[in-house]
Write a structure and sequence with these properties.
Length: 205
């Protein structure tokens, strides 16, 4: 299932344009970072909302990335906050060595709950947005929310000056950020590889 809000990213063709934080390469990058952070992990899990439009295509990309890393990939599902506890219990039963959170509005709204569960189950977890790391998550890698807001403001200004949304291409992320919480890493008994620290945009002590 896909939501056809625009005819294409380059030519929206209607009254809708804006920004998307979807970037196919990000999922593979996040799994690769987990592989570096937790080399002994025999498998990795991802948490998804099964009701999210376009999920099947994204899962196919995640599976391909995990296969390239030589890691089995477990898919955990949560479509409401009531599903989180069961998902993490399944994670523990599977003995997955690390977890990636596939971004979803529900997960963003329940950020603190997910971070707390990751802490309770002592599972190294990677998120998309910096806010989860500020809340106590281990690491995030994704599009810069601040940059997206700035670009949205520029777009709004252009439309207010008379440009047509149909002629303004939907923008994809161009600025990404890697954020690490060292306190959480220490609590998990992890040593952050120097190569990852060297490319981090922010290290929270």
């Amino acid at each position: 299932m896909q939501i056809r809000l625009v005819a294409s990213l380059s030519r929206p063709g209607g009254n809708v344009t804006g920004f998307t934080n979807f970037c196919a390469e990000l999922g593979a990058k996040r799994l690769g970072l987990l592989r570096e952070l937790v080399p002994p992990a025999a498998s990795i899990a991802i948490l998804v909302n099964p009701t999210r439009p376009g999920l099947d295509a994204q899962l196919a990309q995640e599976q391909e990335a995990a296969q390239a890393l030589g890691l089995p990939l477990h898919i955990l599902k949560a479509s409401s906050e009531r599903d989180f506890d069961a998902a993490f219990q399944t994670l523990a039963q599977l003995r997955a060595g690390a977890l990636a959170i596939i971004t979803d509005a529900l997960f963003n709204d329940r950020r603190d709950q997910i971070v707390a569960l990751a802490r309770r189950y002592s599972v190294p977890t990677i998120y998309e947005f910096r806010q989860s790391v500020v809340a106590g998550g281990l690491i995030s890698y994704g599009a810069s929310s601040l940059d997206a807001c700035r670009q949205a403001g520029i777009f709004a200004g252009r439309i207010l000056k008379g440009e047509k949304p149909a002629e303004l291409p939907v923008q994809q992320p161009t600025k990404f950020e890697l954020v690490i919480n060292m306190k959480t890493a220490k609590a998990l008994g992890l040593t952050i590889p120097p190569g990852i620290l060297a490319i981090a945009d922010e290290v929270i002590e």
